[in-house]
What does this fold into?
Amino acid sequence: MVSSAMVPSLNLHQTLFPKCPSPWRNTLFHYTRPAVLHTPFSPSRIHSSSVVAAPEPDVGVHYDRTLELDLLACPICYEPLMRKGPPGLNLPAIYRSGFKCQKCEKTYSSKEVYLDLTVTAGTKDYSEVKPTRTELFRSPLVSFLYERGWRQNFNRSGFPGPDEEFSMAQEYFKPAAGGLLVDVSCGSGLFSRKFAKSGAYSGVIASDFSENMLRQCFDFISKDDALSTISIALVRADISRLPFSSGSVDAVHAGAALHCWPSPSNAVAEISRVLRSGGIFVGTTFLAPSFGNSLPPEILRPLRQTFSRLSNTYNNLTEEEIKDLCTTCGLVNFTSDVRRSFIMFSAQKP
Ligand SMILES: C[S@@+](CC[C@H](N)C(=O)[O-])C[C@H]1O[C@@H](n2cnc3c(N)ncnc32)[C@H](O)[C@@H]1O
It folds into this structure.
């Protein structure tokens, strides 16, 4: 059921999004391809004017199923969501919209500044605790500190730093230029903002499981004039249950994230599912510590995995494990760049 609270007044909109133009003025999630494209495949195209009539919900609220939003899907059924509200995947338009699964009829709406598309969205009594590596980043303090010192520490392990990581990722993403990029586990949106500002994508979705990271992300976006007219959306999602239709995404970025995921295999399987044919996955993570040739890999690997399971710490994998993981999830053309404990890897949906 969509309540009037889901459709805030223009005044509230202006308070929340002082730098975002009214969604009624700028609602298009631009899916025009850049003039020059060297792509071996066609990026996701959205026909923003096409509207498919949806079955009339019994609550008397009219939901539209726009082709534009075939992208957003119910995390339970994976069916595209119907939408009530202004079109477009920019922050104010999403904030003013209610969403409903055309199959199970579960409704989803924006919580404060992000659209909550987790399975538990809207639950009142049920809650569950994820592994520490997920819960840690839900803390307001960690989310606040993340871009204010926390992330800079990654340099000690070989991470080249956001600017260089961004340029490296852009190289890998060249075949997806002009398409839709989802920055999963985006944290406070360090890279989502860079991707959005690059102008290389028709739209960017910044997605994370942490409510506080998404709030930080919103703060950074709303203070940045360069982002006020750019198509960028904030979606709360669990990496193991991505709320996007299969084959709907051109590029998935996951910076410094794989080691934090509760199940890297479920996560990469989901990334593979949502990528369209030819779509690119680029990730970075901390590699498992190398013990040189002190023990053979067939002994070292189970030892490390047992330790990781028992300690409930991060899931640090080796380069070979990451390649194997991508391959087993149906991705091809694995490439990587390793610098001490840092790895940037890419793989492609065939
Ligand atoms: C180290 S931060 C990386 C942030 C950013 N991408 C970067 O490159 O700095 C890891 C992120 O993974 C997210 N994360 C952990 N578990 C997750 C899950 N189950 N689903 C989605 N994101 C998750 C955390 O909330 C956190 O923001």
User: Anything to note?
Assistant: Residues 134, 137, 151, 185-187, 190-191, 208-210, 213, 238-239, 255-257, 260-262 surround S-adenosylmethionine (CB under 6 Å).
